[in-house]
Amino acid sequence: MSEDISKRIAAATGVPHLSDILAQNLTGADLHSLLLMVLKQRVAAVEPAELTRTSPVTEACSLDGRLLNAVECRAYSSAPDFAAVELSPLVSLGAVNVLTNLDQGNVLSTIRGYECASDPTVGLALHSVGQRRSVAARKSLLRLCTSQRVLRFPQPKTPGFTSHFKLFSMVTAGRDTGSFSFELEALLQHIETYLNLLSDLGEGKFSFKDIVVEIADTGVVGELCAAHKLDRDEIRRCVRASDYSSAAKLLEKYGSATWPADIAAAGDMAAAASHLSPVRQKHLELLKECVARPLAAKFPAVAVRFNLRRLTGLGYYQGPCFHIKISNNAGQSFMIADGGFVDWTRRLLGDRKERLMTSAIGTELICRMFVV
Predict the structure, then answer these.
(1) Which candidate among 14, 61, 186, 295 keeps its CA 20 to 30 Å from the CA of 195?
(2) Which residues of 88-113 are buried (b: 16+ CB within 10 A; e: fewer)?
(3) Helix or strand or coil: residue 141?
């Protein structure tokens, strides 16, 4: 609730600091009982005709369910090393905000202490924590995948995007094995899985043009930001994942001419390395040799490159991350898959050695925008 709305309601009801009272002075049980009573009174006044009013969050998906199901089956088949999990449509209230720092207004909160699923990687991460509570369980690698319909706010305006939609998601939970090896192996496996899926679908009724894999590392980009005195708060204010040009516009203010450009899988890292610490230089070189080059060799039709100007995700991912971008027959370009390392299991288990790779691909977006 914004400050202005809070003040207006407090003035109208004659109860100063109403939002503070509800948020801080009531127990969770009392707040739930109060809100439930209010909802019951409102529901008692609902007329049957009002139930037919639809909105983007209640309308059924317009796609053929069999088409979606077929793509989901292909996705599961592309990830044979990942155990398939059917997640609950709910997670604990605050899960997305606490783990990702995204605004609570982006999710649908309930009065019973839960929120509707808005990101399957959060549900998979929480499930991973439940599977890795014991020290013995953490000795094993855990790979999970799922297909889930999620709901997000505000209503999207980009063609092909809807308020609720299906995602296929994967997580790999494990331990820091040293030498950056866990990160390299997990990142490569996630990207390979999605490219295998796209290759499989491309043999049927789907058409994918100009597939691009962009590899980045928030540690590398963070050091470049520091070298160019680019403030993190300004990045949060100005850069939007839905606006590909927002990062370029911001970089124009901070010497974009000297900021390293995208580098192909076999490209020279010298320009980027001059701005980086020895540790980041080593990580960048390992990502090139152990991820980018193998991908380029296995998928010659796919452009694999390093995006050293990726300003989105700096506060979300912790280390290596990636995008997969594709164009359709109409020439429209979409970021179809996204993933990277997060610190969620490390924080939730209180174990600095824990590592978690998360990713997702828009299976519903594929069905909407890439059918021939």
Answers:
(1) 61
(2) eebbebebbbebbebeeebbbeeeee
(3) coil
Are 150 and 120 spatial neighbours (Cβ–Cβ below 8 Å)?
A: yes
Domains in the chain, number:
2
pLDDT per position as a tens digit, 172-186: 999 999 999 999 999
User: Do the beta carbons of residue 76 and residue 69 sit within 8 Å?
Assistant: no
> Is 365 in a helix, a strand, or coil?
helix
What does the alpha-carbon distance between residue 22 and residue 171 come to, in Å, rounded to a whole number? 37
User: Cα–Cα–Cα angle for 19, 23, 27, nearest 5°?
Assistant: 140
Helices 181-202 and 65-77 meet at what angle, rounded to 10? 140
pLDDT, tens digit (0-9, with 9 covering 90-100), for 23-65: 999 998 999 999 999 999 999 999 999 999 989 999 999 999 9
Instruction: Report whether 68 contacts 100 (CB < 8 A).
Output: no
Alpha-helical (H) ranges within the chain are 3-13, 18-20, 28-44, 65-77, 95-100, 120-131, 181-202, 218-227, 232-238, 245-251, 270-273, 278-287, 293-298, 344-349, 363-369
Does this model's pTM top 0.85? My answer is: yes
The answer to the question of residue 260 being in a domain is yes
Q: What's the one-letter identity of residue 288?
A: K
| C-alpha to C-alpha distances, 111 to 38, 39, 93, 310, nearest whole angstrom | 11, 10, 9, 37
Q: How many CB atoms lie within 10 A of CB 335?
A: 17
Token pair 């094993």 is at which residue? 140
Q: What's the CATH code of the domain at 203?
A: 3.30.930.10
d(CA 274, CA 93) in angstroms, rounded, equals: 45
> Among residues 306, 132, 314, 297, which one has the least CA distance to residue 237?
314
Q: Which residues are registered as beta bridge partners of 304?
A: 213
